[in-house]
Amino acid sequence: MESKITKIFGSQVFNHQTMRTKLPKDVYKMYKKTILEGIALDPICANIIATAMKDWAIENGATHFTHWFQPMTGITAEKHDSFITTSGNDGVVVELSGKELVQGEPDASSFPNGGLRSTFEARGYTAWDPTSPAFIKEGILCIPSIFCSYTGEALDKKTPLLKSQELINKHALRIVKLFGNTSAKRINTTVGPEQEYFLIDKTLFDQRKDLIYSGRTLFGAKPPKTQELDDHYFGVLKPKVASFMDELNEECWKLGILAKTQHNEAAPAQHELAPIFTLTNVATDHNQLTMELMKRIALKHDMVCLLHEKPFEGVNGSGKHNNWSMATDTGTNLLEPGVTPYENAQFLLVLAALIKSVDKYQDLLRISVASAGNDHRLGANEAPPAIISIFVGDELYEILDCIGHDKAYTAKNIEKISIAVDALPDFKKDTTDRNRTSPFAFTGNKFEFRMLGSQTSISCTNVMINTIVSEALDEFATQLETSTDFENDVHEIIKQTIVAHERILFNGNGYDEAWVIEAEARGLLNLRCTPDALPHYLAKKNVDLFTKYGVYTRNEMESRYEIIVEEYCKAINIEASTMVNMSKKNIIPSVFSYIKDLSEGVATKQSIANIDCSVEISIIKKFNADVSFAYEKTEALFASIEVANKQGTSIERAKYYQTIVIPFMEELRNIVDEMEQNCSKKYWPFPSYGDLLYSVSI
Ligand code: ADP
Ligand code: MG
Q1: 194 lines ligand 1 (CB under 6 A)
Q2: Do 656 and 508 sit in the same domain of this protein?
Q3: For the domain that residue 474 is a member of, what is the CATH number?
Q4: Given a cut of 80, is residue 88 above it in pLDDT?
Q5: Is residue 318 within 8 Å of residue 307, measured between CB atoms?
Q6: Shared-domain flag, residues 632 and 576
Q7: For residue 487, what are the domain limits?
Q8: Measuring CA to CA, which of 120, 156, 410, 437 is 20 to 30 A from 554?
Q9: 73, 98 in Cβ contact below 8 A?
Q10: Range with the lowest mean pLDDT among 108-117, 266-275, 400-409, 525-534?
Q11: Total structural domains in the chain?
Q12: What is the pTM of this model?
């Protein structure tokens, strides 16, 4: 039976099903080969696909097309061109040539490039990524594309991701071949990103300059109730939220996004959407689209969707969980412990590759989630700490420990586990102690990386994971390809990896202060904030890794580093400037009004009769002192921004923002929040936390 979902699913996507009906058989076959083998598309084929794509788009109401790409701003970019071309005799025809499909040339001078381009060569090129299907959004045919400079350097988040996919495909294939799999032609990584967000009332949002300019509240006294009762998590959806989710699901489904799970999250006004996992680059596109749809659809329901990592102090922030795995084109998940000992050996080897690479490149994983917004989450009580560690569960940990140290495996009564011979238990059942505090957790048949911020693209994280795991797989494959005693050598590699990298395995409570101390003793990195983490990006081992495998050139890495540092400085600059603005233009004048009215009240009361006004007078005195202090802090914050901007290099600026400007912001916030706590509601210039967090009441 055809359901509403199956009817609309993918209806706005030029997907395989549509292509099969719209393209000549041999062209479709060529297209599939292009994707499978990662080769360039023949120009004749491109022309035929372009025409079919255009006809399909027009049939579905599109008038324009765009190369849809993901510049370093972190959001997506599009420049629309209509399909019309003059026909020579006053008329027009609609057209999309193969050349237009395959390549675009937007003027790109205003996208961040971190020094890769000067404005005189501001041209940027976009090129179709045929592995991600084209789709129609708001009447525009969107052609997923990569974006690079005139000299071919990547200026986007997609190019390195595609390169890292090719890389892991190559080395993971070598591994499965060694284990006798000759039928697999390709290995893809798959990702299911769980997305958290807040919904608040639009009218209230419009009254908060901090939300408008910076995406988060920079002031706000704690309301009497937040999330202490755990009554929002998985609670019944409010009708307004439910109708938003219905529309969001429908729009996602039309775009082929596998929206699956939705629920209320821990904080009031917080929610989550999780799709079913799919190919990593498609999941990346889909996550960008999902965030865009969330924002757009919320507005239609008179709400605003907040994707910032920490919109409200004192309640949980929003993150994104990157569930990652690898699978062959024939459907075998390489992180699925197998049913035979031989399959288990392959699983343990792949696991060893993850353990080795995550330990060696803790810094890269941390950097992939570094942003001013995410600094509020990592290390706070709801998110994993800034320390990278791997959770594998007790059962698997015991097995790894036994292999690493030649210990007896009690559960199976085995003296010493012999890989590829001894059967291992079904770890999938080991879900009893799934550790929610771990940043990198093995959850049965995939790894869940939980450090991502809610608004960041998942691309960078997956570039890192794909590349670091590729290196370990490459090294293992190189050793095993010349092996004369395969089973023994697999055992040795796993054993040596465990011995060398077991410090990264941690099953305990990641939120515990004791872990910070233990992690330090183990020599694990604890890069608490963005300016601490970023300089590690250009460490020799990291530059060597990316350049060796051709995922980034050194230039590209330097430019990315610059862009992220700049982004951090700009974010704090906007927040600090907004605080000064709100303080001077609204908060201080409002407190003065309150003081004035109280004083006039005292005068009136005393002129009628000599009544006791000690309460009013003590309130006036307190506010007078507090507002003077707030004024002083505002001036100090303002001055610190000026000094920050005069610092020499971008990382010096970032450090200054982190160590000097942010503490001033906190001091100003503290005194302002105290005044808000004490102030009559009538005088306070902004909606309160209580108003915002409980604004969607129906
Ligand atoms: P949680 O308990 O963290 O909420 P769920 O079981 O709801 O986790 O699902 C988490 C996500 O993991 C989903 O998006 C799901 O599709 C995804 N997932 C499941 N298997 C894989 C896999 N093999 N590769 C990548 N992602 C996967
Ligand atoms: Mg999760």
Answers
A1: yes
A2: no
A3: 3.30.590.10
A4: no
A5: yes
A6: yes
A7: 164-415+440-552
A8: 120
A9: no
A10: 108-117
A11: 3
A12: 0.95
